[in-house]
Amino acid sequence: METKFTKLFEKGKIGRLQVKNRAVQVPMGTDFANHDGTASMRMIRYYEERAKGGVGLIINEYTGVDNVDSVPTNYMYSLAEDRHIAAAEQLTEAVHRHGALIFAQLHHGGATSNPLLSGRTSIAPSDIPASPGKPVPRPMTKEDIERVQQKFVDAAVRAKKAGYDGIELHGAHSYLIGQFFSPYYNKRTDEYGGSLDNRMRFIDEIIDRIRAELGPNYPISVRICGDEFTHDIPDTLNLDDGLAIGKHLEGKGIDVINISNGSGLNGNANCDSYSYTPGWKKHVAKAFKEQLSIPVIATNTIKNPAFAEQLLEEGVCDFVGLGRSQFADPMFVKKAREGREDEIRTCIGCMVCRERLLVHRNSLACAVNPRMGREYILGEPKKDGDGRPVAVVGGGPGGMQAALVLAERGFKVTLFEKGDVLGGTLNLADKPPHKNLIQDLINALTRQLEVAGVDVRLNADATPEMVKELSPVGVFVASGADPIRPNMPGIDSPKVVSAESVVRGEVSPKGRVAVIGTGMTGLETSEILAEAGCELTMVEMLDSVGPGIFAVILNELMGRINAYSPKILTSHRLMSITADGIELKNLEDSSDVSIPVDCVVLALGVTPRKGFVESFEAVFDNVYAIGDARKGGRIYDTMLDGYNAGYSFEP
Ligand SMILES: Cc1cc2nc3c(=O)[nH]c(=O)nc-3n(C[C@H](O)[C@H](O)[C@H](O)COP(=O)(O)O)c2cc1C
Question: Is the CB of 172 under 6 A from ligand 1?
């Protein structure tokens, strides 16, 4: 098949393996395994879907080699025992069915293991916690080292038995192997610490023993961090150190190196949010490609195939590592090959995936792809629409997602959008600085609707009467919500504006501005106002800013906002708006506080539009409210709501 991404679809080689193209799905923990570490049906279907989507090689998520001393989560995939082999074989078969190869990423957490789950003090090269304040591990004895090395070897043997095409040793992100690499974590004075050769001895001996067990040709990848990007923290690893490790491993005869970045002290250089410009770390992989002769796999915040192709053209790597883009759209590679790249649903770097695992201790999910991780549970949607008409009112993320699944089911879908473009609140979300990926998502969803044959009517402020003309068997109301305006003295003053109007650029406050509320919209509005030179006061009723926002995103946003030295008042409630400014109540000591301001920006969240859904319910039997029209939420909640409504609809 002709393709414009000629580099991406060139065959590649890893050792003696031929890979059908240059796209590699990099390892990403899902917590979809069963509690006993075996691959679940949910996990198998998730990987099968991505193999179907065309990647040449999947390196699956971190896979435990030791379920005694290394228990990072409750649902981690494992090859630590023989009983894990049978389900692992089902997983490799599912991937092979679609022509992709699969490696297992063998992992030991060392200091990062969770003592609350393992019931043991974690083991590590030295007594250095994974990050300051985390549990202090016990330095490994020689017996510990020997035992754990053998566990890597045994897991590699199991991987081969289960049909894996190769294994990857997880030497990145400050897990056990990486802890041995690093003078920050490794303070040993024996032959496993000190010089580079000594710090590499732990992995060297594992590689020797795997080769001895599985022969010289069983492919071995090692993932390392090319640069930890913590140059101000002594003893952490920079690019020169990374290159020295890479050269050492090449000398050891590994087949491929997988370059990540960051560390346990700096996860952002590995998995970066929308704040980073794709390409910011490509010099790291390029240095490896230039200085090593084994193939280089590298991630680089790849959100679309054109950028993947560009990286290959520039000689940054031999294989492009696709991470979160594979969550957002498992058909990324297939669509690229078929020239349908404008239908690829873009990862928006919102970090919901990380937040779910790290904060909520839940399994993985993706804000823009409600099917992700639910492939097995949902199966394919029923194809029972039979051309019957349905109406979707509102072209925001929930409405678009509902329309897509309804169209897939074979309903004749008409979507009414009162604005002149699709996207709804996404059009707000894409305005703040660094959020242009959301525009790519809107474009992709718009194109998907077009391909699905949805009749999109723009500038159509739907009324029950208009919709009635379609005689729909179902009406899905995704009309969004209105900003909350509290009833208080002075609220009707002309100096009070909504955050939404600021973000849209409809009003441009000047001078002294107070933003009330520091949720996501409040913070993004604050950034816009601070950048525009306003003298900013931020007011939050709770005791800290950014309630509910994932720390990674919050720190980035506040880092940028704090550069403008705003006045931040937490534990303060807005009581009234006066001619001079605002009156607040300090909730800690009940004192009254007056702040003189020229403009008050309300960012207090949204509430379903009163009476709108009800006006449809009065006319139709089958009315379903979706997303903000039902209850407020983030893109994740809204798109999931839209999917579920369309999926489960029984006319
Ligand atoms: C939810 C999640 C889980 C991850 N788990 C792993 C893992 O198990 N092993 C690993 O080496 N990297 C892991 N990573 C890092 C990814 O492999 C990758 O380096 C990162 O997502 C950056 O690539 P991207 O910009 O293409 O997403 C994980 C990333 C995410 C988002």
Answer: yes
Are the CB atoms for 448 and 408 separated by under 8 Å?
A: no
The Å distance, Cα 323 to ligand 1 centre, comes to 6
The pTM of this model reads 0.96
Beta-bridged to residue 353, according to DSSP, are none
- At residue 176, the 3 state secondary structure works out as helix
DSSP H or E run through 601:
strand 599-602
Tokens of 385: 């629409």
- Alpha-carbon span 366 to 458, nearest angstrom: 28
The answer to whether the CB of 345 falls within 8 A of the CB of 325 is no
**What is the Cα–Cα distance from 69 to 120, expressed in whole angstroms?**
7
Name the E strands within 285-421.
296-299, 319-322, 389-393, 412-416
Structure tokens at 490: 């002075």
Centre of ligand 1 to C-alpha 299, Å, is 9
Active site residues: 175
Mean pLDDT by 10 residues, the chain (651 residues): 93 98 98 97 98 98 98 96 98 98 98 97 98 97 98 98 98 98 98 98 98 98 98 98 98 98 96 95 98 98 98 98 98 98 97 93 94 97 98 96 98 97 87 86 97 98 97 96 93 96 94 97 96 97 96 96 98 97 98 97 91 96 92 90 97 92
Comparing CA positions, the residue from 436, 421, 440, 273 lying closest to residue 341 is 440
For 279, 285, 298, 336, 466, the CA distances from 308, given in Å and listed in that order, are 10, 13, 10, 10, 45
Distance CA 104, CA 355 (A): 24
**Ligand 1 contacts CB of residue 357 (under 6 A):** yes
Residue 584's beta-bridge partner residues?
A: 574, 593
- Distance of alpha carbon 23 from alpha carbon 300, whole angstroms: 12
Using only the alpha carbons of the chain, give its radius of gyration: 27
Angle 269-275-281 from CA coordinates, rounded to 5°: 35
What's the chain's length in residues? Answer: 651
Map residue 417 onto helix, strand or coil: coil
User: Ligand 1 within 6 A of 351 CB?
Assistant: no
Q: Phi/psi zone of residue 6: left (φ > 0), alpha (ψ -120 to 50 degrees), beta?
A: alpha
Domains of the chain: 12-348 (3.20.20.70), 381-483+608-648 (3.40.50.720), 496-604 (3.50.50.60)
Q: How far apart are CA 373 and CA 363, in angstroms?
A: 8
